[in-house]
Write a structure and sequence with these properties.
One of its GO terms (molecular function) is nucleotidyltransferase activity. The protein is α+β, with helices and mostly antiparallel strands and about 190 residues long. The chain has a single domain, classed as HIT-like (HIT family, subunit A), CATH 3.30.428.10. About 25% of the residues lie in helices and about 15% in strands. It contains six helices and five strands; from the N terminus they run αααβββαββαα. A five-stranded antiparallel β-sheet has the order 1-2-3-5-4. α4 crosses α6. The longest helix has 22 residues. It is globular. It starts with about 35 loop residues before the first helix and ends with a helix.
Length: about 190
């Protein structure tokens, strides 16, 4: 049995009622089960120690394609975010396991700044980003998902990118696979 949903852009035959879930409504569901790994903290470090338990320490040991590394600098690297806010959302991460910005060396600060500038150029080349949110969440209380290893977010923005999906549904629609985004950005890196 399929419910008839008035004013729905979807054909009634696309809406299938599941037994035991109550009365159907007019909402379509966009299932994102891959996000459960993030929600449940899968692969999130359980300690603040450096090493294989920290994804940011582990990634540089992988091939760039496997680790989604876009570019490697002298003291830091650029990597795609596994849980992006927008397409092309990447992070600039020092190789050294350090939690606080004030603990960075001058060389690390310089490399993070240069890679951030280059990331902006590459993202603009690939996607025509009109702006960026750039920042670090310092400490778990400030929202850092991995507080023990500093990382700077570079989030591209476009006019109208805050559409109804994130506002109403708490969902981001990403039109491209991360591996494809990584390849485009790596090719366009200045």
């Amino acid at each position: 049995m399929t419910p008839d949903v008035p004013d729905s852009p979807y054909r009634p035959e696309e809406l299938v009622r599941q037994d035991g879930v109550g009365e159907p409504d007019e909402f379509m569901r966009l299932w994102t089960p891959h996000r459960m790994a993030y929600i449940e903290g899968e692969n999130k470090p359980t300690s603040s120690e450096a090493g294989s338990g920290c994804p940011f320490c582990r990634l540089p040991g992988l091939p760039d394609t496997d680790g989604l590394i876009v570019h490697r600098g002298d003291a830091a690297y650029a990597v795609l975010n596994l849980y992006p806010y927008n397409p092309g959302h990447l992070m600039v991460v020092p190789y050294r396991h350090v939690a606080d910005y004030t603990e960075l060396t001058d060389a690390e600060v310089t490399d993070i700044a240069e890679l951030t500038r280059q990331a902006m150029q590459a993202v603009r080349t690939v996607s025509g980003a009109q702006g960026f949110n750039i920042g670090m969440n310092q400490g778990e209380i400030a929202g850092a998902g991995i507080a023990a290893h500093l990382h700077q977010h570079v989030v591209p923005r476009w006019a109208g990118d805050m559409n109804f999906m994130p506002v109403i549904a708490g969902t981001k629609v990403l039109p491209q696979l991360l591996a494809d985004t990584r390849a485009l950005l790596a090719k366009s890196w200045p």
